[in-house]
Amino acid sequence: MKIDVLTLFPGMFCGPLDESIIRRARDQKLLELSIHNLRDYTHDRHRTVDDKPFGGGPGMLLKPEPVFEAVEALANEQTRVILLSPAGRPLNQGLVRELSGYQDLLLVCGSYEGFDERIRETLADDEISVGDYVLTNGALPAMILIDAVTRLLPGVLGDDESACDESFSFGLLEYPQYTRPADFRGMKVPEVLLSGHHAEIVKWRLEQARQRTAQRRPDLLKAADEAKRVQDN
Ligand code: 4FL
Predict the structure, then answer these.
(1) CA distance 5 to 108
(2) Ligand 1 center–CA 2 separation, angstroms
(3) Fold annotation for 165-232
């Protein structure tokens, strides 16, 4: 997969995407990542990327000209152009899976108060939010999206890191897990996990995942039941 990013802060992308699994995916050419500075697509002396909203009000908006020029230079017919903004579709694992099926993504990071509406109307194929809070710009959301999508690309995760766990837990929160020692300062690992009885362990884990999800994220339970029903049929 190829991912291009259009941002006012290319320096923010140094570090988080240069480590660990994402680094390896890039080295193996499973992910081809390019970060582009929106200012490189301006032509005036001050390299202006934003302006005041018509009608008044606080903050600045990304101007259409540099964004249009950049997207026209970077995208082709098959590119999925995605704006990162708090007004977008909420990112979840289902949407991540959908995005992992595209050949090319172009992520456009918003800044300040947002985008001129014409960018949204005629340039963007989709608009995505990573959560109901406001950040200083869309760079961190873009990195979150890149991380979540990259780990689903074929060949990126090794067997030990496998992404199959998601289908096992049917969208439920993860069940409690333990590693050695079996007794740490008197805190003991549940007996069933030491029993070697695989069917009992599977049952215990599903029940734990259900309880935890009901308590912490009841909104996920309905979706999880639906996913299990579809899988069982
Ligand atoms: C984007 C917040 C996506 C959450 C400020 C500019 C944002 C964001 N998801 N905040 N972009």
Answers:
(1) 6
(2) 22
(3) Trp Operon Repressor; Chain A (1.10.1270)
